[in-house]
């Protein structure tokens, strides 16, 4: 992963409070662990700090290996003033069930947690507490801290084990995730102007509105990638909110806008869907370079360009 963007006195922000999986993700960004950081209550609050220049960048969950995309993040980064993804981090996610000391499993009727954590522990609750009611919270850590307040609306919370250690809450059960090995992907989002340099193992995130409701419109978009040998690692549709049935495609592709094949695909996309948004090119967390056929390499694009220029006498 690249280092955090340049030296700055501005803090980073993240979906808080302390002890969320999002904070763990931020701590993976070289340079960010030693920098000041402030928690935000939710995605909108985190991005408002970035847009107002009060935070250098915000770490937010974007995709889970079980649940798929995180709509709140996908929608927030593609709407409003332009933002850029600067880095990604992938964090293994394991959950514990915590309660105030003295509370037992039999006392638990309501459980506070983030909707993603609830979705990833469904089977465990079905098997162990089938009647438990979910009380949604802004984050797993917020749910756990809520147990320390007067008269919480739930008796137990699902969170990271780190939060149990920090709060002194009792662990009623651990490793309660339904899918061992599940990971969540997080992105560090800043203002435009900071384009991370290509590393050879990068991703580019785009939001592409379907230009017209007609047969083949999506295929025309996908052709721009296929014909340049650009692999997609995520694609999902999100409603634009304009009218029922109007969708935008949120896409991650292998490669950097500085790679000729990606830049050429972007040119093609701009012709097909001029309203597309470029949300950033940034290093892949797993540092795996893509397989690029020689005819899609930078050199092949440069040679093709030179050939046409020569034919035109330029
Ligand atoms: O609530 C948290 O701790 C978060 O960081 C969001 C989240 C919730 C569940 C799985 C991964 C991330």
Automatic annotation (TrEMBL):
Pathway assigned in UniProt: Amino-acid biosynthesis; L-phenylalanine biosynthesis; phenylpyruvate from prephenate: step 1/1
Q: Which UniProt keywords apply?
A: Amino-acid biosynthesis, Aromatic amino acid biosynthesis, Lyase, Phenylalanine biosynthesis
MF annotations from Gene Ontology: prephenate dehydratase activity
Limits of the Prephenate dehydratase domain: 11-191
Q: Which InterPro entries match?
A: ACT-like_dom_sf, ACT_dom, Chor_mutase/pphenate_deHydtase, Preph_deHydtase, Preph_deHydtase_CS
Q: Which reaction does it catalyse?
A: prephenate + H(+) = 3-phenylpyruvate + CO2 + H2O
The name under which this protein is listed is: Prephenate dehydratase
Species assigned in the record: Arthrobacter silviterrae
GN (gene name): pheA
